[in-house]
């Protein structure tokens, strides 16, 4: 086997280093993108704990979808009985609109996904982490107001489809259990 010439060796070395350099540049860009997404989440949420932010990013939560995270308790309550009733769905969409969560092409893709497929338990765990983090940093009166708002809205979703013709028990035992878990998340 003939020995490669200097120019062939140079081409080979350039190709190897070019591929390696390309991988390093791609990895660097990925780290910058991750850092930027983390900074956006930190800015929107006020959370500075990188582990929580990375957990959110790992779940696909972006700065835009963080606003939707406020809807997790509502969706959680709606799914308590194993399915989302039409009245619950309509009420949650109306609450999203009232909260200023904008539509994309006339739809709420993430919210509609959550209303058609039960969110993974990791999403609820991420919400609990978020509330725990806020609980550690918010003034007591602000936290109480947030707690009251979330529990009131979740209770409204639980009551919207309960009972028969408006009579009877309006909140099911499963919904009551979720409401109790929401309250516990605030400590």
Briefly say what this structure is.
With about 190 residues, this protein is mainly α. It has 9 helices and no strands.
Shape: elongated
Work out the number of β strands.
0
Structural class: mainly alpha
Tell me the number of structural domains: 1
The biggest beta sheet is recorded as: none
Q: Please give the count of helices.
A: 9
Uncertain runs: none
Order of helices and strands: HHHHHHHHH
Describe this structure in words.
There is one protein chain. By secondary structure, the protein is mainly alpha-helical. The chain has one domain. Helix content is 72%, strand content 0%. It has helices at residues 6-45, 50-58, 63-69, 72-78, 86-98, 109-116, 121-137, 140-160, 173-185. The chain is elongated, with a radius of gyration of 24 Å. The relative contact order is 0.10. The model has no long low-confidence stretch (mean pLDDT 81).
Topology of helices and strands:
Blueprint: H1 6-45, H2 50-58, H3 63-69, H4 72-78, H5 86-98, H6 109-116, H7 121-137, H8 140-160, H9 173-185
Helix pairs in contact: 1-2, 4-8, 4-9, 5-8, 8-9
Which descriptors apply to this entry?
single chain; 187 residues; mainly alpha; 72% helix; elongated
